[in-house]
User: Fold this.
Amino acid sequence: MKYSGCIIEESLKEKSIINEFEIIEEIDDDGIMWIVEIDESRLDDVLPRLQSAMVDAPIWYCDLKCEDYHYIIYNDKIFKVNRDYGEQYEEAKEYGLKRGIPEEQLPNRTWAK
Assistant:
């Protein structure tokens, strides 16, 4: 199974981590954003390294999802949300709010299936 998501260049202090992903699209609109894919079998190895590659401030998150699960990756915490249960997004959203991310930029229960 493949996970897909979005990684913004500005969120990374170690940009070479992007080489761990298959880049589906690169969008350059006042900064680079990559739409990426990665095989589920590689997640256990790559997620902690992606987390470590993220800048400390300002706070950002990256996300990777498949049909069933959604990973929301902050530089100091990773949330795994079951997309069948929209309420599971609330903890990740609250965490981002406490870290200063605007509410409209955060994952929320509308991202569930």
In short: The mean pLDDT is 93. Strands lie at 2-8, 22-28, 32-39, 61-65, 69-74, 78-82.
